[in-house]
Design brief:
The protein has 2 domains: about 140 residues, Rossmann fold (3-Layer(aba) Sandwich); about 150 residues, Rossmann fold (3-Layer(aba) Sandwich), CATH 3.40.50.1370. It is built from 11 helices and 9 strands. The strands form 2 sheets. Strands 7-6-5-8-9 form a 5-stranded parallel sheet. The chain has a 4-stranded parallel sheet with strand order 2-1-3-4, sandwiched between helices. It is globular and about 55 Å long. The structure holds phosphoric acid mono(formamide)ester (CP) and norvaline. Norvaline (NVA) binds next to helix 6.
């Protein structure tokens, strides 16, 4: 008898209630870890991790999450696995499903991830594609909930590229009910939209009265050839202290990292009082433990 496998390809693969449940569980797991307790919730479970792009946070947080919960993560770089020699995702997905309990994939086109999901019989987790980065936004939501409570009805400003992070924020806005104002230079807007999403070319317009200001690199992985051109196009979108001063006095600043100081954000802002980027990065570990438990043990 086959059961429906739950995947996490986009944030809205979860319902609002499930996101809240995962956040609450992450807070619980984080607190017990701080007390020196480790719970073996994923004992003897194995996570395969396929990386076709570089990573620091995603790799370490998933690997640490498995280690700390009694399981194990296996790192597969595309260059050293048979993927480099042409073994297709549909074969890789079926083979790894025979041996592991979940598969995390970081790749280029989102369609490649969909193919993994179509052929896998264990959960596929999006570790970042060109179009979405839901694990990061789950950690961002956890960070907001911990520091400020529910995000419903708040104003979030996205400043910069209409990229994978921006798209996952759009999913989050629809799911969690917050206003999202996206400021991107013309030609770099995302095609996605949502009920509470507004797009502008003015960074000031987006940040005015915002509760949360978020940005990301101007050139994402795979766009290295465009990086120089993007530097000049995105210059007016740098998050500096002057721009942050337009947000609410208690506004938070988030960035998924890695950050380029002097480009999308100034040193003063990322190192300043509004910035919660280190807690945000750390929360990848806790959010993903709760996500893995949800996908592997309860679905
Ligand atoms: N934020 C994030 O996903 O970082 P890495 O690219 O280091 O995994
Ligand atoms: N938008 C960035 C996020 C990195 C975590 C990229 O795709 O490179």
């Amino acid at each position: 008898m086959s059961k429906l496998t739950r995947h996490f390809l986009r944030l809205d693969d979860l319902s609002r209630d499930e996101v809240v449940l995962i956040i609450e569980r992450a807070i619980e797991l984080k607190a017990s870890r701080a007390n020196g307790q480790r719970s073996s919730i994923l004992e003897n479970k194995t996570l395969a991790m396929i990386f076709e792009k570089s990573s620091t946070r995603t790799r370490v947080s998933f690997e640490a999450a498995m280690t700390e919960t009694g399981g194990k993560a296996i790192f597969l770089s595309s260059s050293e696995s048979q993927l480099a020699r042409g073994e297709p995702p549909e074969d890789t997905a079926r083979v790894l499903s025979e041996m592991t309990d979940a598969i995390m994939v970081r790749t280029f086109e989102h369609e490649i991830l969909n193919t993994y999901a179509e052929y896998a019989s264990v959960p596929i987790i999006n570790g970042l594609t060109n179009d979405f980065h839901p694990c990061q936004v789950l950690a961002d939501l956890l960070t907001w909930f911990e520091l400020r409570g529910d995000i419903e009805g708040k104003k979030v400003a996205w400043v910069g590229d209409g990229n994978n992070m921006c798209n996952s924020y759009i999913n989050a806005s629809t799911l969690m009910g917050f206003e999202l104002v996206i400021a991107s230079p013309s030609g770099y807007e995302t095609e996605l939209g949502g009920e509470w999403v507004r797009k502008t070319t003015s960074a000031k317009d987006a940040v005015e009265g915002a509760d949360l200001v978020v940005t990301d690199v101007w050139a994402s992985m795979g766009q290295e050839d465009e990086a120089e051109h993007r530097q000049s196009v995105f210059k007016p979108y740098q998050v500096d202290e002057k721009l942050m001063s337009l947000a609410r006095a208690d506004a938070l600043f988030m960035h998924c990292l890695p950050a380029h100081r002097g480009e999308e954000v100034t040193k003063q802002v990322i190192e300043g009082n509004s910035s919660v980027v280190w807690a945000e990065a750390g929360n990848r570990l806790h959010a993903q433990k709760a996500l893995l438990e949800f996908l592997i043990n309860y679905n």
